[in-house]
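Request:
Um, any thoughts?
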Amino acid sequence: MGKIKTALEIAMEKANKIEVNKEEIKKIEFEKKAGILTNKLLEGEEVNFKQEFENLSKEEKKFIIETIEKTLLNGLVLSPNFNELQYNKIINALKKIKEKPGQIDAIKNDVKSLLQTYSDQLKQYYEQLKQQFSTQLDALKKQLGAQLGAEADIDPSSHPEFQKYWNEIKTNIDEQFKSHIEQIKQMIKSLKNLY
């Protein structure tokens, strides 16, 4: 009869069979380095890329810079609440990884205008729809008030029809703006990086 193995012994045998992919480990290390550098850039810290990239190959430097760029571009998103401070941090960080930072300045106002317009349009359409539903619900409020013997307060935005219309409107606005923001991201991506 064979020896019964403990769970630890079985786990150790399985762990010994696992092969470590050195390239994958390197990639994870470079992604971690890119994350640290991205945070430093977003916080406005000076980053000495020459020093940070000492002893790295051209491909490794390129990978790290592209990972930083990807992370920063992912931060340029359509949001109902435009955050100018965060936007400025992203733009300033992008300028630090580009060979010609002035090219980012040329795009900066377009991006800001697009994100601000998106936020403003969402708020405007939301309020207009809410006003329309409020008018439509006035009759229902009066009817409920008469039945209950007290004034009924109905929030138009909680009505299922309101939610249906709002989702349709928001989807249409999102589709219009997503293509524009993607074009701008591609334009930024096409600008030459430091490495």
About this structure: The chain has one domain: 21-190. Residues 21-190 form one domain. The chain has a mean pLDDT of 88. The two ends are 63 Å apart (CA to CA).
